[in-house]
């Protein structure tokens, strides 16, 4: 029943379409024909499908039900559903503790610089306050980004950059531009859960590539290229979410060579760049923005309330992406937002802020690791930077069970399988070290671990 | 060749797919088989397709080319392409005159209130400045909107409202939620050009409904429901773009009855509401947010730089839309943007500002109509409010030709066919009365009309 419902929800079959034959579907699902007959009868009783004499079962209804992204893809326990973890984190009340969330506490952000930028904006010219921006977005901010690219070794021009509403919107635009329903996309396993949610909304097939401490497993990557002919691979090269690992030079080179041989486009999401103590290898740098598309945003380091992302790519692709962004958002990101971001980035205090933040995170990482060690929770690796610790729970415990128990105590966690396409990360949990260094987190975890182990 | 290329660009056919047979395609296109043979041979010479002995022509290439939204749908002269007019208006330099654009001059906007709101924001709590917002967006702004809905006669609750990144993003989310590639959508003809661009990005079929001074032609609407079984209808009920007309009570009732009989969902884009001197009929009010989805934004009256839109709909649909917005934008609109908008809307000066604006627009409308009359350009109707005048050019002139000539003089116009799915509005032009009341616009138009008539 679930399989048929999922087909309808994902629009694989629609009103008036004939369902698979009982015998055929029984074979596909490896169940007995009588099981299929029973499922069809129940769905018919619910009015979802109807029988036509001598010709099988058909989907009823005059319209296709609305898309339910949470029903596309494998049916999962809500506790390890990517939407669940996002909504829990975003809508948690202020009294909740959020060691599972993907951002820094508000008092770790450059609030003073933002306030200064707001006051300065209040004195700016009228046009900036009320007009739509240009289609590519603020030239000032694009030039600041190009300066940073040049420091990395990427030689790009202002017409290779498009500012977007957010980093997520940047990836969404790229998916719209390059993907077709039914295409295959590679993601890291484990990998950022919202990539899965986003890609489900594009109705594509996901294939997970096991992630190693040196980046994606290149042998698995090469095998997937041959077996699945994917159109796109989405990854974080530096301070990967959730593991905090960064790709090695050798992995970057092999990965890019394989991508070239199979005409694969790679999206490199670089939002954690500023958290690195020193630069690690980047695919966009090796490739020079040919088949690698760089995206990024300022939500993690500057503000998640003043949102803006960017896409750096081939010039001809940027042209197509501009048309798509005009069609779907009318214009680029808010000029007020890009002016605030450019002001903070250009100000002298931002580099100092980031240096302090890296120091503070390094200490929080050590303290959190020590707290977790007491509970038998051990990091998979100690990352060079950033705010994630990807940890293994004590033997035999399922992180989804632990997360459910902690949620009852208003502690929002990020259980491993939410990051895993193959659902193979049940023993793992992602901790945000800036949100976990709290006695109450430790206590809630301790209780949950004990209850779950019972 | 164009037809095949469009099929490839729109992904109707992809790599490895067989092209239609020469004979079959000749019949479809109403051309001779030899014309098709020539087109296929040329495409084969370009490497786009290749012949396989005895089995026809196939699309080559290992990957499908990126989506080109400007190539989906009928191939058009760039001068009447919806993307062209958007990009011309958004990217015009400050010295250009823009009687064709869809927004007010910056000094007509509530700049003082925005500056005050920015200064107040600079003193607000840290969390507002740096954290992601809740998934539904600011409760304060939603409550303000609910208050306005109540004044109209719409009784809704806060969980029937979702704030979005912009009005366009609101419609885009709804399209993702309800539409499937290949569905049919009804739009007004003439109607807002970016609806066409947006819907093309969703790969749906567009059917235009002729627009009358009392709203869409109900007989044509009813016939289209039977002939095309559309999934959605998108319209402006009040101060329709581009005509400035508003639907009558009778049209609203007939339209909604027909929609009910055919299970059609209606999106009512209400962005011009505040420009009305007194309220005209609304589909969302008659229907009570059952099959009508209300969307709106503040870009036209408050700021296009501080963007935010909203969707008011059935509670269960809002839940699905939240998941989609999380997947594609991560969270709702910028809390900084929604705080600024709520501050200006709640402030005492906004109603005064709108009253002044309506007065000023009424005067500009009369003056622009008088200027245009001297050139033989006459309004289709005199709208009750808003900033558009939909005008007929002197006999025999094509507005696209006039627009191209004026663009050479840095005057950006909005030629009629950009608003017309059926391309039947060549004699018309949309003028923004707040951007047209200028001697230089009159002079450029006069020259262009004379040159075009020669």
TrEMBL record, chains A, B:
Organism of origin: Novosphingobium guangzhouense
Keywords for the protein's UniProt record, in alphabetical order: DNA-binding, Pyridoxal phosphate, Transcription, Transcription regulation
Entries under CDD domains matching the protein: AAT_like, WHTH_GntR
GO molecular function: DNA binding; DNA-binding transcription factor activity; pyridoxal phosphate binding
Protein family membership: In the C-terminal section; belongs to the class-I pyridoxal-phosphate-dependent aminotransferase family.
Signal peptide: none
Pfam families: Aminotran_1_2, GntR
Highest taxon in the source lineage: Bacteria
Domain HTH gntR-type positions: 1-62
Residue stretches in coiled coil: none
Protein name: GntR family transcriptional regulator
